Amino acid sequence: MADENFKVRLEERLKIKIGEAKNLQARIHGSSTQRDVYCTLSLDQEEIFRTSTVYQTLSPFFGEEFQFEVPRNFRFVSIYVFDRDRHLRQDKVLGKVAIRREHLASYNNKDHWFPIKAVDADSEVQGKANIEIRFEPEFEQMFNKNKSSGGYNSSRRLLVQVVKCLDLTLKNGACDPYALVLVTYTNGKRISKRTKVRKKTTSPQFDEVFTFYNSEGRDNMCESDSEICELHVSIWHDTPGMSDDVFLGEVRVQLRGMQQQNAAHRSAWYFLQPRSGKNRPFLTHSTPPGTRLSSDNSLGSLRLQVQYTEDRVFPANVYDNLKNLLLQSIHIQPITATSVYILGEIINKMDIAQPLVRIFMHYDKIVPIIRALANVEISNVTDPTTIFRGNTLVSKMMDEAMRLIGLQYLHKTLRPTLELICNERKPCEIDPTRVRDANTIATNLANLKFYIQKIFDAITQSAVHCPTLMCQIFHNLKECALLHFPENKGVRYSVISGFIFLRFFAPAILGPKLFDLTTQPIDCQTNRTLTLISKTIQSLGNLVSCRSTQQVCKEEYMECLYKAFYTESHMTAMRQFLEIISANTSSPQTIENDTPVTLKEGLMIKRAQGRKRFGRKNFKQRYFKLTTHDLSYSKSRGRDALCQIPLSNILAVERLAETSFKMKNMFQIVQPERALYVQAANCVEEKEWVDLLTKICQTNANRLKKYHPSAFINGQWLCCKSPNELAPGCSEVSRTDNNYHMTLDPERDLQRIHSLIITHITTLEAFIKISQSEETICNILKQLREVAYQIEQKHRTYKRTLDRNIKYGSLAAPIGDDNYLLASRMNLDTSILRRCVSSEPNCP
Question: Which domains does the chain have, with CATH numbers?
């Protein structure tokens, strides 16, 4: 652990499903007591995602899920509930649910109802402040009343400097901060001083050092026997021309008795805190409207499902034993006596499937492991219509494998039609109970048939583009099914359609945002259209196995739709599609596709590149689109591209120092002649764009080794001060072919499996006890336990070292949050560590 080359990285992932709200307060004023409600998800105060608006209700159902890699440190995840007021054209925040980062893991994988709490402008703070406090002696001659004798009295003066702040809150897109420093004396007197305003920065540095005295005469407000007892530092956003500045946070430090200490000097980082209500009267700034956070649920409740994972990922060699134990599963018979199968029995199959698939994908073993698991499952089935209908390990691994392998294929196949549906927004409701005018059903049915036919054609004509790995897996599934059910003519199709239609295409149509198939907000009508299309596609997948329409038609109003598509021509096209994607070939013939596939798109702000001699290099909002061919941007979505950058021209993609333009979430796309500077909407979007562009362009032979971390402004590079705009970079690129982690990150996935084993260690030990009679399985269980304990010891040693080296009050552990330093940084269970020590005598 002492080796400097031993690097540990922190990887965090957050998935939150915003379910529904209930018992929201009705509007007091206005024509309607109902509300138009939407939610936003924020890291601290930075908005990351936003739900669609649900209209005219006090119990809105959202049902939207957001997941992302956490790009930066944070204190709270907050979900704000807003009322959209179309008359006043100003959205009103109804309240929020704020979950501290340390508490996220305790809510994992379960629905919880959280009380919605009121939002006070004074409680909306984030950021840290570095404050230096120093007491120094001051000698001054004091004369007694009869002036016959003199002497020197040694007193203390207080020196305060707000050295720096980080991550302050933006207010209306701006931040012009200054610090107000106030000391309180034991006699109740207060003296305040303020710094100069620092313009356009969320990370200001203040140079002023303020001096406060205890002695009478030096400060007229103080009496000779007074003593400084408290320091109060508040940070404000300057708003010239307005009556009040905006509060950004405060720090309170108790100083009574500190000046008598030998080491009366402190330099520490503090978390900024909400403004204390008891201290508001003496502040010169008026209190913003609102109430403090309530402790009841009188404002309503919000149902959330949270899944938060935090992994400390060690170098690859730490996981060698676990990796070998997993990979050898493909060589062991029966598969039921392997570590992979056993983990699927001990751990939630949805949790374990993803890291298993990614590990076996990385080592090119995904086809044989799925074949072995599928063969066992199919052999235990008596009714061929129930194959893979349950949530088994192999079905969950297939779901993950298809999503991982076929995401680009999915985009090419479905995206054009889904964009058409979202843009046209034609009504497609055919349920008589949901339609006001029954005469519109015929038109709606025609619209729906048109969309279904387009998607059906797109799917059945896409067989030649199905990825090779998916074809190999489908071929193995078909062979296994035919081996066990040779007399069933439909099983060769149903075993494939159960995955490609029911678990791949249908879920993507139902939830296009989860598969990155659209960036547009989906209204209720469009969502209903997608639901009807998804139902039909699932039903067609069922019908291909030669079952009757009565078996799949549950709603009467859907019967006409099924009959319209349950024709011989449709079934023939579907069977041909299934035959092609499951053909017996290890390298199926595919047709090269020159049509670019869209990988990511969205609005961002770019800086003009100054191509014209006298052009202004200002910032403008543009719609960016990344495809497999190039990166382009236009004035708005659907407009012709103003600029197209071939991927071969992108030499590097790096984050840009905030000091360049005093703007957050900026990155640069380096080209041969110039760099394009772009600002993303938030830190998550920035990370996703940088990661994806880096991955797509990493095979470029001309990629840079060095770059400029700051911009070229006013005739020089701000980073190295070189006046030559074409000067070579001054810093190593942060990601190269050697250290950039691809989409597949085996060390992270091995660590995820280790974390899951440790979480379920009690279950594993119970399995060991009941499997004593089966020697092979018992040995595998013991090996899993031993490997898990070995890795756990690495974590334990690392954590001890980390805690020993982190100083409370440092930038890594600012003062202010309860038990910040003592809180476990890795969510380790002490009982597990005790078992580890007792079971492993050689553990350090």
Answer: 10-116+300-307 (2.60.40.150), 128-282 (2.60.40.150), 314-380+746-844 (no CATH), 394-591 (1.10.506.10), 598-728 (2.30.29.30)
